[in-house]
Amino acid sequence: MLTLNSMRILCLSRASLRPNGLMTTNRQYVYEAVTCSAHCMSTSFPMKDTWHHKTNFRALGKETKPLFYTIPIGSPRNYCTGQVKLSCWKCKQPLDNSPAFFCMSCKVVQPPDEGTSFFKIMDCDYTFTLDTQKLQKRYLQLQRSLHPDNFSQKSVKEQEYSEIQSALVNKAYKTLLKPLSRGLYMLELKGMHIEEGTDSSADSEFLMELMEINEALDEARTPEAANRIGQDAKGKLAHLTKEIDAALLKGDLQTAKALLAQMKYYANIEEKVKEKLSELM
């Protein structure tokens, strides 16, 4: 029979681990140990980076089992073991949406909801083939309301939050706009990353083909010759886009990673074609 102290140590150690072996950061502040229904704890914490361990006993049938929560003290927001409910930093009223850019009660701009994905910020479906027109419309809408120029007469805190939010929206838009950066970001959300430089796992035949394309581009002396290379690269990118989308839909992340590595090369060729055309014009 385990003692209470032994159970506490075991539960807290399990609660601090995630499936990937990483500590959860940012918004995922509450760790659930043993068994827990969504009993909420709404507490305003002082700004101090310390940890507090709370033991809660709840009767389950004939037994009473201890529930342990590891809660970081360091945020003025309110937290819940079920669903996190945020409050406005100024009027303290609950925020209806997530991410919340403005408080619906007092209308002040809010700080970023850390850990929120770019897809959620831009109100886009989590898919490789997202609607770029919808993305652009959302971007313009957010920038019209969040641009720092709109807050020049507001408090220092509101000016700071508007700058941070505006920069975050810019980054989210640029990341999701192009297929390559979008795909790389989707892999990053899954804990995968493509290193810079030559892919050591790339097929030698593929690398030889790239070398020939680059040589042909260097030797191009007319805009027409450079354009033909550019069109070929565009065709390759379109084909890769379909293949990457299919791989991501199937959850085949390794294949998607390999195809995105190829996409990086062809995207680079496309940029070189633009540079070559500017030289020849």
Provide structural commentary.
α3 packs antiparallel against α4 and α6 runs parallel beside α8. The protein has 281 residues and is mainly α. It has three domains: 70 residues, no CATH class; 72 residues, Helix Hairpins (Orthogonal Bundle), CATH 1.10.287; 67 residues, Monooxygenase. Helices cover 48% and strands 9% of the residues. It has a three-stranded antiparallel sheet, with helices on one face. The chain starts with a helix and ends with a helix.
CATH secondary-structure class of the largest domain:
Mainly Alpha
Give the overall average pLDDT: 77
Distance linking N and C termini:
82 Å
Q: How many domains is the backbone divided into?
A: 3
- How many strands in all? 3
Short description:
The protein has helices at 4-15, 118-121, 132-146, 156-177, 179-189, 204-219, 223-250, 253-280, and strands spanning 31-32, 50-60, 63-73.
SSE topology sketch:
Blueprint: H1 4-15, E1 31-32, E2 50-60, E3 63-73, H2 118-121, H3 132-146, H4 156-177, H5 179-189, H6 204-219, H7 223-250, H8 253-280
Antiparallel strand pairs: 1-3, 2-3
Helix pairs in contact: 3-4, 4-5, 5-8, 6-8, 7-8
